[in-house]
Design goal:
394 residues; alpha/beta; five-stranded parallel beta sheet; 11 helices; 34% helix
């Protein structure tokens, strides 16, 4: 479109979640020539607070004398090391002629610190020592250990789904770095230093763009009220759009449908909807199912193009997604006493349409049924909360 005369600013890219922007940002930067872009009403991936904080841990693991990053993480998440404690440790380090990192290992020698503060500083030093022992591990393993040891995701809380998703996307980036060869054959050996150099280069490029003509990159929520000659909506997949948080609530599913409709109607002339066959989530390759909303678009209005190979980019992890009915699957006629359904029975869901009962699962004292739908693949549902119409006996 740009080659045909459309300004970059006339082609917007929409996503459902902020974590999706990372791969798109990297791709726009890697294009030759690079495609200028801006994250509208949001922050570039590498500048998001949680991403910078976790990367700061890796910077200190790599270089424990990095006082700037050490100061950023010493009380993040909060661990009882306040500003006065940091000042006291810095003063001790200056008197003894050692680095701040080394001083944290001598908290017991700082008599002017309260016992609780000394314990907090010692715990931090022990934490960093454990992480530094892992510095020769894969980047993915080191990142996962950092998030787990610092309890960063727990500190964010369950409500911060977007920020937690950014941490997952950072792990996905690390896994990709571990698996893929460097683009430059003369590049230095892979490892923590190389990963940090790659991330820092991307982060530096975020702050420089001499072109005022940039591709707008934003979430669907941020797109309301805007219009563009061309719109691309990426990630039209079950779990993203509709989002997995919408569960099976009719109202929430309808809101997701409206959100996609709003995004589609932002396009004046060109509209492109994309979905992936496979997606790396938290470093694991997962099979994707296209959004059921795509089935609702009249086929005569769509030109479908397949730009994938149809095969997984890497071996699937066990349990990573629906693999389709296989020869090992059997049809049984026994009625499940709790749900009143039977394996092999045909049912109709108000949103997903026709499906066939595959198996049952009990979790947390509740009985669930896994159904394979023609539109979205397999879904795990609670029949007590989802209206399923029996179409034919098993």
């Amino acid at each position: 479109l740009h080659a045909d005369g459309l300004p970059y600013g006339g082609a917007a890219v929409f996503v459902r979640t902020v974590a999706q922007t990372r791969a798109l940002e990297d791709a726009l930067r890697r294009a030759r020539p690079p495609i200028p872009y801006e994250v509208v009403r949001g922050t570039s991936f590498y500048e998001r607070k949680e991403v910078r904080n976790v990367l700061a841990y890796l910077e200190v693991v790599h270089n424990p004398h990095d006082a700037v990053n050490l100061g950023r993480i010493i009380n993040t998440p909060p661990r009882g090391i306040g500003a006065k404690t940091v000042e006291a440790v810095e003063a001790w380090a200056k008197r003894e002629g050692v680095s701040l990192f080394e001083a944290t290992h001598h908290a017991a020698d700082m008599a002017d610190l309260p016992s609780r503060a000394r314990a907090a500083v010692k715990n931090f030093a022990d934490l960093m020592d454990r992480l530094r022992e892992r510095r020769d591990s894969s980047i993915r393993e080191l990142l996962e250990a950092t998030i787990a040891e610092t309890r960063y995701a727990e500190w964010l809380g369950e409500e911060e789904t977007d920020r937690r998703a950014n941490l997952d996307e950072l792990v996905t980036l690390a896994a990709r770095y571990d698996q893929e060869p460097p683009e430059d054959p003369d590049a230095p050996a892979r490892g923590l230093e190389g990963f940090l150099e790659t991330v820092n280069l991307s982060s530096d490029q975020d702050g420089y763009d001499e072109s005022p003509d940039r591709v707008p990159l934003m979430t669907l929520h941020a797109a309301k009220g805007l219009e563009f000659p061309a719109v691309f909506i990426a990630g039209c997949e079950e779990g993203l759009l509709p989002h997995e948080r919408s569960s099976d609530s009719g109202d929430e599913i309808e809101e997701e449908r409206r959100l996609l409709f709003v995004g589609m109607t932002r396009a004046k002339r060109h509209l492109t909807l994309t979905h992936a066959r496979f997606r790396r989530i938290h470093g694991r390759t997962t099979r994707c199912v296209k959004s059921p909303f795509l089935m609702e678009i009249p086929p005569e209005t769509v030109r479908a193009e397949d730009e994938t190979s149809g095969t997984s980019p890497a071996p699937l992890d066990s349990g990573s997604g629906y693999t389709g009915p296989g020869p090992e699957r059997t049809t049984r006629t026994e009625i499940d006493s709790e749900t009143g359904l039977a394996v092999g029975e045909l049912v109709r869901h108000p949103t997903y349409g026709l499906g066939r009962v595959a198996r049952f699962k009990t979790s947390g004292g509740r009985r669930f049924v896994r159904i394979h739908f023609n539109t979205v693949g397999e879904k795990l549902l609670d029949p007590k909360f989802v209206r399923l119409e029996r179409v034919a006996p098993a």
